[in-house]
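so my prof wants the structure for this chain in the tokens format not the other one, which i didnt know existed until like an hour ago. anyway here's the sequence
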Amino acid sequence: MDSVRQNKVNSLLQKELAEIFLREARTLVPGSLITVSAVRVSPDLGLAKVYLSLFPVKDKKAAMAHIKEHGHRLRGILGNSVGKQLRIVPDLVFYLDDSLDRAEEIDKLLKGS
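here's what i got, hopefully its the right format
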């Protein structure tokens, strides 16, 4: 169960990271749309799990690896935008959110039968 502070930081980080990925998507994964579907910070606010949805990307694992390589730079950009609101900018850990892909697959299976 997240605290009120964690929920506020989750929302702030999700909003700011979405804006960062909107600007940086051309260099990170050209020709794709990167959506920040969720952010979960740890109770000490030192670690943020960032769930990303990638569309239309053929090799999602390679795209995620490229995003993870640039995680340090993305954290720096995030620090510049939320530095006045947060004392410590959390470390970012990126995960692929494939819930939309699974929902689409289930929808296809249901329509096919």
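also thought this was worth mentioning. The radius of gyration is 15 Å.
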